[in-house]
Design brief:
CATH class: Alpha Beta
CATH architecture: 3-Layer(aba) Sandwich
Distance between the termini: 58 Å
Helix content: 40-55%
Radius of gyration: 21 Å
Number of domains: 1
Strand content: 5-15%
Length: about 300
């Protein structure tokens, strides 16, 4: 019966959610109606919950980015908390049309089963830099709490390149050097997508059109790498979670060169694809990169009312 009920609700919500024309600012479906649909869907699912009280819930928190900013580490650390239920995979609901067109019922089906007292969290790093996403998230839940983890923009560019480079290497495909992407006609190639993803103030402005800063907590990704516990404490407070994560949950793995997690006596580290060494870059080119981000960083600091220890 619960399965039939979910299917019916998914169909109704899907019909309501699919845009009839390309989205423009203010052109998404009426927000009050969509919020009501989301609430109704959640109530119906609770009625069909499992005997132990667990059910799938729409996320109350989303890690929106940034790509190569440390989103996986943040999610794994947050999952140490007993009151957090995290979606295992990146859902890409709000940024991929083939997913978004399937409606909130489909989105709900991607969430983990959780107890009523638990907070459901999903992370999709591409959300931060996708223009349509802020309005769509706001339409679903204007009170949602958002987590954004950022690193030094120059370092993030190098990590971005490194990930794509290794993906090609694993498939035995050649891939150009980072200099070929960063330099064009003797100048910094400002059309390189990885550079655009690091222009944080541009993307943040889009999010602030729909959410106030009190709804967005910015995690310092560089500090999370060096000393994770204080940053996770701030996240707990922002999400109004009881302080359950302790310093003893983290230990530095000298072999890997970064912090790993200790949970109920079980040790675990991030996948080997995390923490890879960046390519060697000519110091002069690195300086150009730092100079390029100097003004954009200042604009971002002014936008969010805080500074970060970036080049």
């Amino acid at each position: 019966m619960a399965a039939l009920l979910l299917g019916a609700v998914m169909l109704v919500v899907q019909l309501q959610l699919v845009p009839s024309r390309p989205a423009v600012p203010g052109a998404e479906l009426g927000q009050p109606e969509l919020v009501r649909k989301a609430a109704t869907l959640q109530d119906e699912i609770r009625e069909g919950a499992a005997p132990n009280g667990s059910a799938q819930q729409l996320p109350q928190t989303i890690i929106i980015g940034v790509r190569k900013g440390g989103t996986r580490a943040l999610l794994e650390m947050l999952s140490l908390h007993p009151d957090v239920a995290a979606a295992e995979n990146e859902v890409h609901f709000f940024d991929w049309e083939e997913h978004y067109s399937q409606g909130l019922g489909w989105y709900l089906s991607q969430m983990p089963f959780s107890s009523p007292h638990q907070l459901t969290v999903e992370k999709t790093p591409a959300y931060f830099t996708s223009p349509k996403v802020p309005e769509r998230v706001h339409s679903m839940n204007p009170s949602i709490r958002l987590l954004l983890i950022l690193r030094d923009p120059s370092e993030r560019v190098l990590s971005d390149y490194t990930q794509v480079f290794y993906n090609h290497m694993q498939k035995h495909k050649p891939y150009p050097s980072i200099e070929e992407f960063l330099v064009r006609d003797g100048r910094l190639n400002v059309d390189y997508k990885a550079l655009n993803r690091s222009l944080y103030h541009v993307h943040m402005q889009n999010w602030l059109r729909f959410f106030s800063l009190r709804r967005i907590h910015i995690v310092d990704g560089d500090r999370l790498i060096r000393d994770p516990f204080p940053e996770i404490q701030k996240v707990e407070r922002f999400l109004r979670l009881s302080p359950q994560i302790n310093a003893s949950n983290f230990y530095f793995n000298k072999t890997k060169g970064f912090y790993c997690l200790r949970d109920s006596g079980r040790d675990r580290c991030l996948h080997e694809s995390k923490g890879r060494a960046h390519p060697q870059v000519d110091p002069k080119l690195l300086n150009k990169l730092h100079e390029y981000f100097h003004e954009p960083n200042k604009k971002f600091f002014e936008l969010v009312g805080r500074t970060f220890d970036w080049h």
